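Quick board copy: two proteins, each given as sequence then tokens.
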Amino acid sequence: MGLTSAQLPQLAAELQADPKSLGYAAEIAARSYAGVASLCNGTYPGVGTVWRTDLSAAEILAALVESEVTSLTATQWTRVLTLLSPGAIDASQQRIRDQFAGIFAGKTATLANLTAAARRAAPSRAEELWGYGVAVAEQDVANALGGL
């Protein structure tokens, strides 16, 4: 699946500014859309992090600190179990992160563990910009550059 119509102008701005100095200009000058896409989808030094969309219930349970969990109320624990019921959560959703932050307010070790489990190094510039699993296709580059 290609980038959305909202993401194409963002890609155009990324290609023009090249804020991470990935070398888009040379590929654009050579009219190598595949080369530009490869740069967007490749790893590079200093890559950022993204929220995971596939955090399993087992990973969440492993992140809980027992001494902090024992102080949860029955209502809080029910909320945790409800959130875990699908088997995995999408940590890229702010509302999901807010719910966990509310449940575990003041439980700093558990919150730190959950945050560490829910984030990972973005393996590409595309994922850093648009999230987990996003890749730039040659056609996206052509569309963003207006078919140059």
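And the next:
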Amino acid sequence: MRYIEANLFSDVSLPAIARDAFASPSTLLRHFRDDTGKTPHAYIKTRRLEEARRLIEVGVQNSSAFARPFALPPGTPKDRVAALRKAFDATLKDPAFLAEAEKANLSLDPVTGDEMSRLVADVFTLDADTIANTTRAVLAMAAKHRITSLALPALGTGVGHVPPAISAEAMLKEVVAHLKSGRSSLRRVAFVLYQDDAYKTFTDTLKRLGGMQ
């Protein structure tokens, strides 16, 4: 199961799962059906649908939680954030805006800026394993589509409050391993880092891991 979860959005085959489990495909298939009641293919399809549904639910129920945090980079002055939050909240209470939303069958449930911050923090709370798995999935997608250039944020270091050292270690291990595998189409990987401490941490970690800059 760990192999499937770690490669959920990659091209996961029965032989690959069997190799990871040190079993033959037929033995794995038999035990997998006994344990889950499904074939590996059906299980993977179900898990992908569950993840897609979860993301859609978050986007629909808390759409404002996505828009505001990523519109403002870390380090934006607090008075600027407060002013924008006040304007945003006022817009959501404006009668004309609400009338247009009703015509478009949009359901709006305005919340305060502090409530939005808590919502975002809950949604984007990440640990090292999740960051590594997400990075691996992005790299797999890049390889599948033969992408040559990729830009990545420092996952979790914004609203997720993950220390840059944890994000750097998890992400760069995956990136370095991917680039050194000899099977990557990538020629350039850039990290979008807003803060000096994050830049230093990612640079130091990359050097320690023997990566490329």
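Board note added afterward: The two ends are 34 Å apart (CA to CA).
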